[in-house]
Specification:
With 256 residues, this protein is mainly alpha-helical. It has one domain. The chain is 73% helix and 0% strand. α9 packs antiparallel against α10. The longest helix is centred in the first third of the chain and has 31 residues. The relative contact order is 0.15.
Length: 256
């Protein structure tokens, strides 16, 4: 007869919170080690901030260019990490069978999505700090309260994360790579990041204003440049995109 406790610890799945935390740590390490991801998430937003903040490429209608650009670059950093970078990385993980193996583990599909979103948030903290330091060096004078800024960044991350996972979980890796980069370029130009939305025709402004990148960049700009209070309209748009994107990703995401 075997004594009690011989085979301890008890075999079985770890608690769900521990599994998600471990996966989030792993996802963060892999993201920070990927040179291509760092180019997309760190170097490109930084270069755009320095270029457009020091050279009069776009007529911003007076005022300090960096005051207009810094909120838009913060929004771009969120999109590049939560949407473009995550979509591409997850798409190729799916192609190479990484997700198929994870599907055989006790980690549920929504747990994987949660872990990936948490890793994105950690990366974004580093991005926000870097962009803020550079913008302050260029003469940025942020206004407003940090509370609406925090809410905008979190909801923007959730919205873009859901859309990125939806794309990665339904399209082939090569299609995800092409589509994610195309969307990134289109939203960079038409999402109010470096070109003000009022430069577009009135009909186009109404449509572009409903995009998550426009809601995020305009919301951040209202608070950080103009000192506005809680941007409820922009928060509502981001919340709608977040709920729709994450729900669709949870429903249609395929492990292989």
């Amino acid at each position: 007869m075997t004594a009690a406790g011989t085979y301890s610890p008890k075999p079985g799945a770890a608690p769900l919170t521990r599994m998600i935390a471990a996966q989030a740590v792993l996802e963060t390490k892999m993201l920070l080690r990927n040179g291509e991801q760092l180019l997309l998430t760190v170097i490109i937003p930084t270069l755009l901030l320095v270029l457009f903040g020091t050279v009069d490429v776009v007529d911003l209608g007076g005022g300090e260019a960096v005051d207009f650009l810094a909120p838009g670059i913060l929004a771009l950093a969120v999109m590049s990490t939560a949407f473009t970078g995550q979509a591409i990385a997850t798409g190729f993980e799916r192609r190479y069978g990484v997700l198929k193996r994870l599907a055989s583990s006790p980690l549920p599909r929504w747990g994987l999505m949660t872990a990936k979103t948490l890793s994105v948030l950690v990366t974004e903290v580093l991005q926000v700090l870097l962009v803020t330091v550079i913008a302050l060096t260029l003469g940025w004078s942020p206004q407003g309260s940090p509370v609406p800024v925090f809410l905008l960044l979190v909801l923007g991350t959730a919205a873009f994360s859901g859309l990125g996972l939806l794309m990665a979980g339904t399209l082939k890796a090569e299609a995800t790579l092409a589509a994610a980069n195309l969307v990134f370029l289109l939203l960079l130009v038409g999402g109010g990041v470096v070109v003000p939305l009022d430069r577009f025709p009135d009909a186009a402004q109404d449509v572009l204003g409903l995009l998550p990148i426009a809601a995020l960049s305009e919301g951040l700009r209202d608070v950080l440049q103009h000192g506005a209070g809680m941007p409820w309209g922009n928060l509502g748009i981001l919340a709608a995109w977040a709920v729709a994107g994450l729900a669709a990703a949870g429903r249609f995401f395929r492990w292989e």
